[in-house]
Design goal:
With 171 residues, this protein is an all-alpha fold. Helix 1 packs across helix 2, helix 1 runs antiparallel to helix 3 and helix 2 packs across helix 5. The longest helix is centred in the N-terminal third of the chain and has 63 residues.
Length: 171
């Protein structure tokens, strides 16, 4: 009988050890999950900052260089009136801008850029899309230089702007 009691106590101690191990494991999993969420948020923040830095690298020269700003202004009015060199610069900047937005769209689809931030950037792009110069530039630009999904977004946005214009809701 003595050995039965020892065996019962040992089983009880073993069960207690298993329960304590499971509690410890649950705590560790919860801590690990929280750490992974923090790491993911930090990575998304870094990725979004990279997206903004890339866009800014294409937009900053326009603000810093009056001649380039004038090329962009004239190009958005009518890119065909630009000189060969002016059109090259306009094409280069617009191509870089669109390529950067293609990356932003990819990051949005991947969950790095929120819907609100994507819509904010799309509103900025719509400003360009409403201009005759952008439309002429885009019609001559090979949309195979961006992802097919993003090219479809651009075509849909241009079509929506045209419908709004036809309906008289924008000028």
């Amino acid at each position: 009988m003595y050995w039965d009691a020892v065996g019962a106590v040992a089983e009880l101690a073993g069960a207690g050890g298993v329960i304590l191990s499971l509690v410890y494991l649950a705590v560790q999993i919860r801590q690990n999950t929280k750490q992974m969420e923090r790491t993911e948020r930090a990575a998304r923040g870094t990725a979004y900052q990279d997206v903004l830095s890339n866009l800014q690298s294409y937009l900053s020269p326009v603000a810093a260089d009056g001649e380039l700003a004038e090329i962009i202004r004239l190009g958005l009015v009518d890119c065909e009136q630009l000189s060969e060199q002016g059109f090259f610069r306009f094409n280069w900047l617009m191509g870089g801008y669109i390529t950067n937005l293609d990356n932003v769209y990819y990051q949005h689809q991947d969950g790095v850029v929120s819907e609100a931030r994507w819509q904010m950037m799309l509103r900025g792009l719509r400003y360009f899309m409403r201009t005759a110069g952008f439309k002429a530039w885009w019609s001559n630009w090979d949309d195979n230089t961006v992802a097919p999904e993003f090219a479809a977004v651009l075509r849909a946005e241009i079509a929506a702007i045209e419908r709004e214009k036809d309906e008289g809701s924008i000028k």
